[in-house]
Amino acid sequence: MAKTTCRLLLVTLLLAGCSSGAPLGVTSPPAAETTPFSSPLPEAQPQPTPASQVPAPADCPATLTPAQMEGPYYTAGSPERPVLVEPGIPGEPLLVTGVVMNSNCEPIAGARVDFWQADGAGEYDNTGYQLRGHQFTGPDGSYHLETVIPGVYSGRTPHIHVKIFASDGRELLTTQLYLAGISEQIPDSLFNAALLARDEEPDPTGRRHISFDFVVGE
Ligand code: FE
Question: How far is the CA of 191 from the centre of ligand 1 (A)?
């Protein structure tokens, strides 16, 4: 009788083990991970990152745009106009766009951006305002200049002069822009590769389009 009882007990124990959802010794996962009352999935979304760890946008310059000399050909009081191209001015058409921002990459609206340059033959207009003009940045800090590719003069490689003023009139930056593929070709001790504009896709008319974002101290 004792032997039969032991067999019955063994069968009973085996059956009980098969009907269980988990083998002995394995702990079921906490209900909170699988029930509707557990932490909902949306909490897995990125948590706010401390400001000190927020990465700068990939296209956000970390340093101020280098300043360069004003040179001898600046004339104050240029007209407000984004289009400097006029009939008869020598030079290939050029579109220059970009933004003015502070070192935190925040756009500066209402900044006055003053451009002046030589024409395609390397000549400045020092009696009038040909190829001279200023404009004010938009709410997004943007500017838009329509001009010509400047030529070479007295050993200077092609460049475009720029002055930027805050809306209260403070001068924020004086510098020069250079054109890739052109400005590096001519020896010029003032040339600075950090001031090379980016080449963009030509606009629908085939005009060369370059861009440059100015980072200025406020
Ligand atoms: Fe110049």
Answer: 11
CATH 2.60.130.10 fits 65-215, yes or no: yes
Tell me: the pLDDT tens digits for 171-182? 999 999 999 999
**CA–CA gap between residue 195 and residue 213 (Å, rounded):** 10
Here the contacts of 174-177 (C-beta below 8 Å, separation 24 or greater) are 174/67, 174/68, 174/69, 174/70, 175/65, 175/66, 175/67, 175/68, 175/214, 176/68, 176/71, 177/96, 177/210, 177/212
CA of 156 to the centre of ligand 1 (A): 7
Asked if residues 206 and 189 have their Cβ atoms less than 8 Å apart, the reply is: no
Look up the pTM and report it: 0.73
